[in-house]
Amino acid sequence: MEDPSSILHRLQKTFRSGVTIPESFRRTQLQNLLALVQENEQLILDALHKDLSKPKFEAFLSEIDMVANDLHYTLDNFYSWMQLEYSSKNLATRMDKCFVRREPLGVVLIIGAWNYPLHLILLPLVGAIAAGNCVLLKPSEISQATEQLLAELIPKYLSKDCYSVVCGGAEYTKALLENKFDHIFYTGSQAVARTILQAAAVHLTPVTLELGGKCPCIIYGHIDIPSAARRLVWSKFFNAGQSCVAPDYVLCSAEIRDALLPAVRQTLKEFYGEDARAGPDMGRIINPHHWNRLMELLEKSRGKVVMGGEGYQEDRYIAPTVLVDVEESDILMQEEIFGPILPILTVKSLEEATDFVNRRAKPLAVYVFSDEHSVVTTVLENTSSGGFCANDGIVHMALPGLPFGGVGASGFGHYHGRWTFETFSHRRGCMMRSWALEKINVLRYPPYSDSNLSWLRWATSAKKSWISCSIM
Amino acid sequence: MSREQIAVERARKAFLTGRSKPLEIHQLKNLANFLVEKQSEIADAKKDLNKSEVGTQLYETLGLEGEIGLAVKKLKEWAAPRPVEKNLLTISDTVYIQPEPLGVVLVIGAWNYPWAVTIQPLIGAIAAGNACVVKPSEVCVHTAQVMETLLPLYIDKELYPVVTGGVMETQELLRQRFDHVFYTGNSAVGRLVMEAAAKHLTPVTLELGGKSPCYIDKNCDVPMACRRVTWGKYTNCGQTCIAPDYILCEPSIQEQVIQEVQKSIKAFYTENPKSCPDYGRIINQRHFKRIMAMSEGSTIAVGGDNDESECYIAPTVLRNVKPGSKVMQEEIFGPLLPIMTVSGLDEAIQTINQGEKPLALYVFSPDDKVIKRMIAETSSGGVLANDCLVHYSVSALPFGGVGNSGMGCYHGKFSFDQLSHLRACLIKQLKMEGVNDMRYPPHTAKKLGWARFFILKNPDLGWLARMGLLACLVVVAAVLLQNYFL
Hints:
Shape of chain A: globular
Largest interface: A-B, 111 and 112 residues
Oligomer: heterodimer
Radius of gyration of chain A: 26 Å
Structural class of chain B: alpha/beta
Largest sheet of chain A: 7 strands, mixed
Structural class of chain A: alpha/beta
Number of helices of chain A: 16
Largest sheet of chain B: 7 strands, mixed
Strand order of the largest sheet of chain A: 10-13-14-9-8-15-16
Radius of gyration of chain B: 28 Å
Strand content of chain B: 15-25%
Number of strands of chain B: 17
Number of strands of chain A: 18
Distance between the termini of chain B: 81 Å
């Protein structure tokens, strides 16, 4: 395996040559990436199935189409994103030109995750290419089949001088991080994020962290139970619960819980049949380590299993499981579950629910199901999270106009659509001063005098709404 | 519990009461009043840097008053939900970005413009609805004291406590958990700040520095360029993060540049800058020694005299400086202006790119093509053509570094955005469940087809589809008009 420093050195040399800058180059690479995704659908589906038993439907919607969608959106728009953004002018700067120029950062590192092994690494890549950078991709070694496929396909479709794929585990990543990158984009866990940030601090490298958390789902007030049940079940058990924005647990009143359970049971039957394991539509846990982790959680939990609960080690299957009577101190409530296990906790009021959420670390998403607008607003205004979705789960991720990212323990920075482009760009403030009006400049030069100062203060006084910058 | 811990805990409690969130511009207006009413106490703190009262107003508080005015005027607009485009599936939903406060922000100030760089981030923090712990630089003893005693008289002392102290106290502060840390200073400490913040996964804004190059094209109006460069360089005795650090020019104009700079120095600071009230001093002896050591090995063309007891260094110009000389190894942050000769624009760009990305880049030229090339082939926090420093005061421009000169940016709306969380919001209704059906299992090929149609954007059909849709709408409108209105 090539030494990371030499790969980086090569990418840096390419970046300095300026080849990634022209719009035509970026467009070609983005089109090639689109071709990669479109021409290798079956290979991608196979790899995703091998890694996660991902149902074809999920693979299309949440992986292939997400990437293709973002590519189309970016191809349509990135040229306009690249343009100079002129600042509004006022009397003082009428003779000057002020604008913001978006420039590539240089060589960026993108570290992928295993739960959506395709889109979590390719979506950031789209924006990084569009922004004119060279990229080093480090897919997750846990989703091996996808990792191998990417290592094989990327060099076939994209410029080998500008974009490289490296494969390796924790030790390799550690060695990689000793080098200086111009930006690091990481999707994964908090523990690893800390080491990445500390490594980045040495080089003053800016970082984007897409982490996770326990995304609460508050169900309250007047509500259409069957619809809520369907959306909740869909977003929870999609990818066997292994989504960073899956509703982790439910907070609702005892009455709603009692109405919800039969609806959930009915929905599970509708979606996955009597035996979800036999059908093609339920995914599997990524590997034995996580399967064991989840089964242990189930075993140690003091909650009552009312649906599911079975697991089979040979194919890493865990049935869609629902538990009730789960307390705040339960083991299921300590860390992000990241599996097809849904604890339902009861609260007596909406305030109790929002207090509960606020006692914990800020999650990647907060969900609320209610027909009442005031309930939705109360939850929105009284909690903080990366994103927020009322009356559905996960889907806010699919809108390219919305910034997707965390806050607090769920991460910082964001991407998708134009936001990815911005993440991998430097916004350079530029001002072209005119040679004229030197007489006005005289006001600012020493020897300082009170009268000159008064003139300057008059000109820059905030009361004058038509001047928004000091002359200086 | 340490004093720092207590201040942070109190700020967090105060934040959790929710009182920093509403768009009351009360606190901002109080801050503005403070700047106006305590003008003399603020200027009195000039003891730290020997800044004149006019100098302090001009370079410190004037900008702050402008920023507060802007924030007060625009806050409602900045804090409002920002709508976002939708796709076919979400056409009936509400989609927007809601800016929210982060929580408790830590602002660590610097000593060179102690008011500007400490209070300006505070303005952004307050505007965005955060609580903010302010840690002024301990190097400016008097300014820190004034901040500590007077600020609490004007703004909420629990939400915005001022915590003074040195390295130990700063380290203790950094051990606490913040929701954002905003640091202005040098890269060495910047690294430590980022590392400390990493333990809590706290995002940081680092406003650092670097060697800001200044290229003077031989065809430009050299006297005017030199006047502007002289002003930019020797203001605050060169202790400005965006001061033009060194000049690059062709050998043919070096002498003229030296003469013109000398003329401007005389015009600004008289024959004897030491006795001129408008010329500052080096902040302390440690920096005095550092700067004097840097001049070793280089030829002095102008100035050079100094007085350690007063931390005085005359406005100095160095000629024929070589890239390997001491003065070119790190940011000068003092009144030494080295001139390095280059054969032309190509060599200038090459030289600049050999160094770390600076906070600012200056280019003086009458030729737009020269300026464009300089911008296109280099990288820096910001660029200013044909003047120095003033891009700092344009609130519509993001002010911040890149690479070694920092990360993040602020000023104007950028301060607000930097210290906010932009929360993505999607508000759906529980009805229209039928539309959702196609995404639910059991998955059939037909359902997949429909789902992909709605979600997947196909640019080849894009224009055609839009025209088609338009045509349909026209037909529908025509039919409606015909049947119901005509």
